[in-house]
Request: fold
Amino acid sequence: MWLRVDTFAYTNRLSTLHPAYKVGISALALGVCLAFDQPLTSALVLGVMWVLMVGWADIPWRAAARLLTAESGFLLGGVLSVALSVGDVPSGLEIAGLGIRVGVSAASLQHASNVFLRVLGSIAALDFLALTTPVPDLLELLRCLRAPEALVEVMGLTYRFIFVLLDSLERMRRAHDVRLGFANRRAALRSTALIGANLFIEAFRRGQRLELALRSRAWSGSLRVLPRAYTHPFRR
Reply:
């Protein structure tokens, strides 16, 4: 799914729009969700972000729905703990020996639903930014905002290494798979441990080769690339 998100970031209708506009929209939506603890406001932000992703940026609605569904699954695990009430819950279950009751009350259920919508609206705001803005554009925006150069470089190298390690992981997984490394549970655990150890070594080796390549090209501590030509809707 990560690779598809990165693909959409480069191929959507807003990919050439200046990242400052998209960051501003996401920050505004995120601020509204955090400032107003109202379910209607959170649901409105969620709907607006969906329209912007699917209607304005032309992101396939199935991909956007799949991403939000996966994020909602992780979110439900945390929200369930908010819905549980401990103490004076008439319909709750009593824990033997402790004298306390655990259950779900109307107030806790309403609070959990409010938290769910509030967080989901915030996630949708960040999804809009992730699906419409390539990471190099965000790094260029950080440079324009005078962010520390070391922070920008670490973010850029981390972003590039994600795809390098994903490629190495896929090749290792395929190599173990053709050798029946996942035939049963015991073999799968052993293969997973071997892949994890080899992936760490591969990342260390790739890092050394990258540093050597940069030094051989007179690296001065900064990876500079030509910025893209952006569009400005409010500039003639």
User: Anything to note?
Assistant: Residues 26 and 126 are 6 Å apart (CA to CA).
